[in-house]
Amino acid sequence: MWSGAHRLVRAGVRFYSHADRAMSRIQSASRFVLAGVLDEALTTAEKSAVSIDFYDLGAGGYRIPREQPFEWERKWYDAALPPAPCRILVGAAGSGPEVAYLRDQGYQVDALEPSRDLAERCRRMLGPNGEVVVASYEELSRSVLDGEVVNPAARIANSTYDAVLLGFGSLSHVLDLNERGRLLSSCVRLAPAGPILASFWLAAKSRSPGRAGRAEHSGRFLGGLIRRVRRLPAHNARLSFGSWYGFAHSFARDEIEDLAKLIGRGLVWCGDAGIYPHVVFTPCTAIGYCCVATETEGSIHK
Questions:
Q1: What is the distance between the alpha carbons of residues 194 and 82, in angstroms, rounded to a whole number?
Q2: Banded model confidence at residue 302, pLDDT cuts 50, 70, 90
Q3: Among 8-17, 50-59, 282-291, which range has the highest average pLDDT?
Q4: Which of 31, 51, 229, 258 is most buried, by CB atoms within 10 Å?
Q5: Is the pLDDT score of 183 beyond 90?
Q6: How far apart are CA 147 and CA 144, in angstroms?
Q7: What confidence score (pLDDT) does residue 296 get?
Q8: CATH number for the domain running over 71-202+250-295
Q9: Who contacts 279 (Cβ-Cβ below 8 Å, separation ≥6)?
Q10: Nearest CA among 164, 171, 116 for reference residue 283
């Protein structure tokens, strides 16, 4: 038999359980509403800026920075990068797990990171032997391709590297198609004879209708009203959204292949680690490098 105290505790546990599930549903729905509103109401440039803001907020709070790359990343670097002590540029370096690993392998490393908080962490991780620039990929492209000298990326715009690594999944944060081409063209300019390594998100599977779909639809309706008030053009591209990373583009395979053709590079598909496929855009001047859309294992440099 339950005593009065036990019944009270049981009722309290039941109330908490129901309340916790309700709050989780409300939190999830609010995230989808916000995603819909922002995706409809903001320009692509504004979405990119908001994404950096989300990283800044996350970096100062609940996010736990990685100290080392994942195992699949380490295998990728070991296979695709030229041997140390070459000079590597790491873009969107975050708090510095890639730069720390490459530095420990004997590479000379510079880094680019748009979040000031994360860039400071990266600077501490890298130490005094490399440059950490607080700048976005778009700023890098304007400095390298357009000769712009009024942004921080100008500090490395005339440098030459043996390879460029676009940090963990960061190609997906380049939301505009034209800017993706400009970024990779900038990387070719910075590493004319070296590989460009990139990881990104796979194209998302279609989501079944339900509460999340209804919440996002409501958000898009509100965002559409704001867009019309702002007199912005309608757009069809729907981006992934998260409260810690902002907006991201999920790629189809042919989009990556088109980027390789655009910059005149070979393309080696190095594997699929969960939702993060990773590739190498290879210079066609080297024998054995032009392997368009080819799966590879082991070292690219053998």
A1: 8
A2: very low
A3: 50-59
A4: 51
A5: yes
A6: 6
A7: 41
A8: 3.40.50.150
A9: 197, 198, 199, 256, 267, 268, 269, 270
A10: 164
Residue with tokens 């916000």: 34
Q: Please give the pLDDT value at position 16.
A: 61
Token pair, residue 176, equals 């505009």
The average confidence (pLDDT) of the chain is: 82
Q: Tokens standing for 297?
A: 């294992």
Does the pLDDT value for residue 287 go beyond 70? no
Radius of gyration of the chain (CA): 22
Global confidence as pTM: 0.81
Reduced 3-state DSSP string for 72-133: HHHHHHHHHCCCCCCEEEEECCCCCHHHHHHHHCCCEEEEECCCHHHHHHHHHHHCCCCCEE
d(CA 107, CA 86): 5
CA distances from 40 to 218, 224, 238, 262 (A): 11, 5, 9, 29
Band (pLDDT 50/70/90 cuts) for residue 273 is: low
| Strand 294-295, strand 266-273: pairing | parallel
- For the chain, the DSSP string reads ---HHHHHHHHHHHHHHHHHHHHHHHHHHHHHHHHHHHHHHS-HHHHHHHHHHHHHHHHTTT----SS--HHHHHHHHHHSPPSS-EEEEES-TTSHHHHHHHHTT-EEEEE-S-HHHHHHHHHHH-TTS-EE---HHHHHHHHHH---SSGGGGTTT---SEEEE-TTGGGG--SHHHHHHHHHHHHHHSTTS-EEEE-EEPPPPPPSSHHHHHHHHHHHHHHHHHHHHTPPP-----EEETTTEEEPEEPHHHHHHHHHHTT-EEEEEEEETTEEEEEEE-TTSTT---TTEE--S-TT-
Spatial separation of the C-alpha atoms in residues 48 and 138, rounded to whole Å = 9
